[in-house]
Amino acid sequence: MISIIAVSNELELMTNCSLDELQEDYIKWYWIDFNEPTEEEIKELDHSLFFHPLAIEDCIHKLQRPKLDYYGNYSFFVTHRLNEAEIEKEEINFFVGENYIVSFHHLPSKEIHDTWQLLLASKKLSKWDQYLVLYHIMDKIVDGYFPIVYQLEEALDQLENNTKDQTMEQLLEQLFDTRHYLLKLRHTVIPMRDLVYRMLNSHRLRGIKRKKEYFSDIHDHLLKLAEMVDANRELTNDIRDSYLSLNSHQSNRIMKVLTVITTIFMPLTFIAGIYGMNFKNMPELTWNFGYFLILFMMFCIGVGMFLWFKGKGWFS
Amino acid sequence: MISIIAVSNELELMTNCSLDELQEDYIKWYWIDFNEPTEEEIKELDHSLFFHPLAIEDCIHKLQRPKLDYYGNYSFFVTHRLNEAEIEKEEINFFVGENYIVSFHHLPSKEIHDTWQLLLASKKLSKWDQYLVLYHIMDKIVDGYFPIVYQLEEALDQLENNTKDQTMEQLLEQLFDTRHYLLKLRHTVIPMRDLVYRMLNSHRLRGIKRKKEYFSDIHDHLLKLAEMVDANRELTNDIRDSYLSLNSHQSNRIMKVLTVITTIFMPLTFIAGIYGMNFKNMPELTWNFGYFLILFMMFCIGVGMFLWFKGKGWFS
Amino acid sequence: MISIIAVSNELELMTNCSLDELQEDYIKWYWIDFNEPTEEEIKELDHSLFFHPLAIEDCIHKLQRPKLDYYGNYSFFVTHRLNEAEIEKEEINFFVGENYIVSFHHLPSKEIHDTWQLLLASKKLSKWDQYLVLYHIMDKIVDGYFPIVYQLEEALDQLENNTKDQTMEQLLEQLFDTRHYLLKLRHTVIPMRDLVYRMLNSHRLRGIKRKKEYFSDIHDHLLKLAEMVDANRELTNDIRDSYLSLNSHQSNRIMKVLTVITTIFMPLTFIAGIYGMNFKNMPELTWNFGYFLILFMMFCIGVGMFLWFKGKGWFS
Amino acid sequence: MISIIAVSNELELMTNCSLDELQEDYIKWYWIDFNEPTEEEIKELDHSLFFHPLAIEDCIHKLQRPKLDYYGNYSFFVTHRLNEAEIEKEEINFFVGENYIVSFHHLPSKEIHDTWQLLLASKKLSKWDQYLVLYHIMDKIVDGYFPIVYQLEEALDQLENNTKDQTMEQLLEQLFDTRHYLLKLRHTVIPMRDLVYRMLNSHRLRGIKRKKEYFSDIHDHLLKLAEMVDANRELTNDIRDSYLSLNSHQSNRIMKVLTVITTIFMPLTFIAGIYGMNFKNMPELTWNFGYFLILFMMFCIGVGMFLWFKGKGWFS
Amino acid sequence: MISIIAVSNELELMTNCSLDELQEDYIKWYWIDFNEPTEEEIKELDHSLFFHPLAIEDCIHKLQRPKLDYYGNYSFFVTHRLNEAEIEKEEINFFVGENYIVSFHHLPSKEIHDTWQLLLASKKLSKWDQYLVLYHIMDKIVDGYFPIVYQLEEALDQLENNTKDQTMEQLLEQLFDTRHYLLKLRHTVIPMRDLVYRMLNSHRLRGIKRKKEYFSDIHDHLLKLAEMVDANRELTNDIRDSYLSLNSHQSNRIMKVLTVITTIFMPLTFIAGIYGMNFKNMPELTWNFGYFLILFMMFCIGVGMFLWFKGKGWFS
Ligand SMILES: [Mg+2]
Ligand SMILES: [Mg+2]
Ligand SMILES: [Mg+2]
Ligand SMILES: [Mg+2]
Ligand SMILES: [Mg+2]
Ligand SMILES: [Mg+2]
Ligand SMILES: [Mg+2]
Ligand SMILES: [Mg+2]
Ligand SMILES: [Mg+2]
Ligand SMILES: [Mg+2]
Ligand SMILES: [Mg+2]
Ligand SMILES: [Mg+2]
Ligand SMILES: [Mg+2]
Ligand SMILES: [Mg+2]
Ligand SMILES: [Mg+2]
Ligand SMILES: [Mg+2]
Ligand SMILES: [Mg+2]
Ligand SMILES: [Mg+2]
Ligand SMILES: [Mg+2]
Ligand SMILES: [Mg+2]
Ligand SMILES: [Mg+2]
Ligand SMILES: [Mg+2]
Ligand SMILES: [Mg+2]
Ligand SMILES: [Mg+2]
Ligand SMILES: [Mg+2]
Ligand SMILES: [Mg+2]
Ligand SMILES: [Mg+2]
Ligand SMILES: [Mg+2]
Ligand SMILES: [Mg+2]
Ligand SMILES: [Mg+2]
Ligand SMILES: [Mg+2]
After folding, report:
1. Distance D183 CA to ligand 30 centre (A)
2. What pLDDT digit, counting tens, does each position of C258-314 carry?
3. Nearest residue, CB atoms, B249 vs list A247, A258, A287
4. When you count CB atoms within 10 A of the terminal residue's CB, does the N or C end of chain B come out lower?
5. Residue C305 touches chain A, beta carbons under 8 Å
6. What is the protein's membrane topology class (chains A, B, C, D, E) (predicted)?
7. Which domains, and CATH codes, for chain C?
């Protein structure tokens, strides 16, 4: 669907202009939103708006990283919002010209919807222009990254303390997934950060220079996010190493205890074997208290070994 | 084979010029393609086209990385296409001068063939020049990298989930191979990216400056590729670590269970050994229910140890 | 609470001005401190002092990294003090204008309190201005980082030598915590270092340029801190690796000794088993000294194996 | 030995000038080679050629990295050739002045010998100057690195596939040695690359600027070498990890099989032990087919456990 | 102790001037050395020499990294000498002004002592100035780093080949210590390198510019040192990994052999157990050669298993 808001020189909002009417002189600036456009509607980018074929290709394809391209008298932005439910990137593209902004997205965007309503409800229309629209949308996009990072941080917290009493396999798999999400997040946050940095320092984007404080604020958030993502990736490393080493240590300890038990019984069983031999001439067998003596000897050997191993610390 | 396309000032395509005829005034620009050249044909680079011996050496030898050299009034490019079947680099070299492009390749190149056909079939000959030829070939070369990365990503996906139920050895070997391919890919993608970056920012390549959007588009793709390759290399690390730790954990678990079983039978066997001793005077042996008592005792000890180990969690 | 110190042109200290009075001509410069401000007081940032809404938002929110923003005729700083007891960041914000400094903090700050007292007690009022206030507070904030790093270094020292005779699990958990603290510290020290670097090199902060030596001294300390934090993080790596390898080596050694003992008794028990068989015709059983011969043989085998394993070094 | 070639203004080669004669006006340019110089000959650097004491010190000492120093009207280069037999660095130093080059080396250098012969046999003397001498020697030095890298790559190939059927210990030691050689190679290739980069971009070396294509060609080779060395170092990491994990996995598998065997025999031996007990009243012992029943029971238990373990996959 | 050397305009050495006399016109330049100064003497830095309080603070405190600060008409340097016996940093500070150098150190310095003697014994006083003093001291300081690196390299060599036949624990602890020393060394060498680099490129240090070759020589040495330290740190990594993997492999091999022995005896002992059972009706027991048949069978099983395991390579 293509929606249009135009602001006239008299600061009146018009929401039912046609694409052709937008070029009229009484239009101060306008915003066209391509929301889940049909193939027919996409063609308007070329036929009515005359954008460069490479930029249009970038709109259509899903392959893009966040970036900024200059084309003659307009700029083209690719940004990524994050779908909170599935931590999946969704591309939003912008064309920003002298007196217009065109937003383009294959999937519905809460950020654009909210900004649209904000503009419709605004009482200070004189303050708005296409760059303020861009700021509001990007601010909301970046604000939308935080809940996802918080969610991952919380997951890591739970994994660190294993509050849900899960098995090793489950913990490792979740940790692996969390690392994977953080890697994907990184590939959104870092290029977004670089994009906003370029916007702030570009000599061609005068409108952004005038609103420098606003876009700086977004840049701050992206710096913070990049730091959080990297710190959390390091944390996953630490958590995994700490898991594995504790687990292997525990496993070793158990094997040690079991083997100590086995080792204590070996000589005892051997002694029992000796007196189970059927030699004709075995004096001990005929002693009256031979059995009890041997039992006592076994007891001593068993306890002795136990104490010896315990003393060496092999039992804990 | 040496093939030639020349475009005359009247925008007529000529495909049967000789090398000598190309210098005539009525030629606007031309493209010479050295496809699997013979030794004789290679000598034309020197004798007819007068290129620098070092550039010709770079054409002949296989040692080169993607790069850009300036020689007086022409530039020399080394690029790498990838052979999809074997993930093997194949060098394609270009000489780009004031009104010509010379392409040189020891192996047939789909990219050059397709661009050649595109030019032959073009209806807007006025739009073409040597830089547009270069753009189309490089665009196709870089587009040719993606299927290979996708193929490796898919292989990693299968390895991650072990959909083919392979043994540890097979998985590790395939992972090792995948890492190796990614490393090789990296050594193609990174220098290509740097090459295109230099092309975009060079003060000597006016023709590229005029088509900046086109070469920027290639640069975008190379940035994306570099990111994908690096992310996938990180992923192989994660997959391997996760394999190894899960495998070693599983192996530990099995050993633990086996050792617990052994440990439970040790004292039982020992007790049986005791009553197998042949002492004359062993009161228990003569008790009427001695045997059943001992059997019951063994049963209790066995079950007791089993429960104790189970309670300690050593059995899972 | 809002506290105010104003210095008049005659270098008199005034501590009971109202916010409105500060704009008078006879005020040379002033310092307003927002210490644990109420919601009402926070509104003064906007109503009386007219700061930019984004800067005020940064004051209120806890999300910030240390940074420096320029707003028209004042600059806005975010800094982090560290709460020594819990190694927790606490934000302190500054607005520095032509003839004033405004400090803002949600939690009480020893650094600000001490500087306040210093200024009240100062006898050379002519030397003071808003930048000297800023210097003194930041100097104290950064000096406050050192005890924490020293504390962590001491903890690492104790862990390295395990002076408290702790178990592996305890050691690893403490090491993990120390790494975590160092990571958090890093995220305070690095942005603070970059902030002071920007202050030193900014063309807009003339007052800091004039006191360059002072802020350079803070920068030195931050460089030193960053180096210490990184070196200590590397040290935690080394300590953990050295723990784990020693522990695993020790564990292996114990298992080896236990298994050697088991292995020595295996053939002995087997021999005893042989002569425990009940075959009718077993000549050895009837020999007069068969039993003692076999005992001696067992002794030889046992000692032989022991010496053989010892010779191979499998016993230590 | 000190050898001299001088070229006169009439382009005649003179090979028996004395050091003093070289300053004459009819000499266009000259090359002095210090090949395995005696202490006496080394003094000529100071007495006859008046080079700076620090540069002479750098000639004599073995401590140097490849580098470039400017001294008034001459430049001083330190380069490293590699002794192919032992992968050992050998320093070659150059002084390059307005009309001369001085080469200095403690050990004989094939590169210098070959260039010397090339110059003696040259028919286009007008093309030669001191920079062409420098180019030819450095080109040969850098070409001499390749066989060593190829040799190491081949060694890695053999190690990867263990074509020689070596034990783990031998493989690991060879891998360790290969890593060590690669590290040493890296410390030659990286500073040489940086040296040639500086030569290419230096404003003081006009002679090199004029031969830019030639020295760029060397730079290409060094870039390629640096990439190969780094990739091979990464490969050694991968090979080692893959060794160790496969080996440990195999070792685990063997232990598992052995332990499974042991575990199967434990209960069987225990049962045999039970019926080896000497209780008076053991009804089973008197059953006619008790023995065969028990044998059959043991067989069932053994096979059952075997199948059970096999079913669990603990046997492969 | 405060020692003074002054050089008069007539190039006469004076060693017994007072601090006050140094300002006289007939003094060309002078050197004041604060060697293990008392608290009283330290005060002269402020009272007689009027240095900046922050620089004096840096002299007194031990916290400093090597660095360079500019104060009006003098520069302040912090450098680190290394105490060879304990590999401990010792700070030496310099103030370098228009016609003086002041050196300050809490501990005696061989480097300063030697330079002092060199100056006293010099016959070419005209060549000396404060920068030559600085060069000589810094050259000696940096030369003093080499023996320590060589010492560590030798220690690594011995560890690599375990020439002293030490246990694993001892080797690992020494390796850990060596890593620690290298890390400490790195924190001296890297800032010293950066300091000398800044000295070489500073626009404010004209005296150093004039002696550029000399300070470049020191910079060379520091570059070399940084490379050696980093290479040696990588080497410690390699050595440790190679230790651990060889050790663990050896340990696995031993366990395998022991377990194979145990596994061979398990079925034999079981068979002996069978014929130790007391069933009434066990036909084999009454066979005339049953015993010898069973013995032979046991021998066959034992040898068979041994050969089978040996064939599988589980015995080496
Ligand atoms: Mg798109
Ligand atoms: Mg925001
Ligand atoms: Mg906001
Ligand atoms: Mg903000
Ligand atoms: Mg971090
Ligand atoms: Mg990462
Ligand atoms: Mg080629
Ligand atoms: Mg493309
Ligand atoms: Mg395309
Ligand atoms: Mg594109
Ligand atoms: Mg890599
Ligand atoms: Mg990445
Ligand atoms: Mg790594
Ligand atoms: Mg705040
Ligand atoms: Mg301080
Ligand atoms: Mg201080
Ligand atoms: Mg870190
Ligand atoms: Mg200081
Ligand atoms: Mg470090
Ligand atoms: Mg030398
Ligand atoms: Mg070459
Ligand atoms: Mg070449
Ligand atoms: Mg060549
Ligand atoms: Mg690489
Ligand atoms: Mg490396
Ligand atoms: Mg000091
Ligand atoms: Mg020196
Ligand atoms: Mg020297
Ligand atoms: Mg030197
Ligand atoms: Mg290195
Ligand atoms: Mg390091």
Report:
1. 6
2. 888 889 999 999 999 888 888 888 888 888 888 888 989 999 999 999 999 988 888
3. A247
4. C
5. no
6. Multi-pass membrane protein
7. 1-125 (3.30.460.20), 257-311 (1.20.58.340)
